[in-house]
């Protein structure tokens, strides 16, 4: 899946991945996609809830070699 911007949040604990995601999303235009890589297992629920509450769309999430990957489309 193509993304307009990539955020590396590996090794960071909650709530830092969310804080960095919000900051990265602020720099995107509506409709653009942010790809996030995280290792904090809590990020799965946190990012899904954050995207929904912020009017964004979680397009896809997957886990690969203990790295959680998310694609969020800016609302």
From TrEMBL:
It comes from the Bacteria. InterPro entries: TusA-like, TusA-like_sf. Gene3D superfamilies: TusA-like domain. Belongs to the sulfur carrier protein TusA family. Residues 7-31 form the UPF0033 domain. This is UPF0033 domain-containing protein. It comes from Bacillus aerolatus.
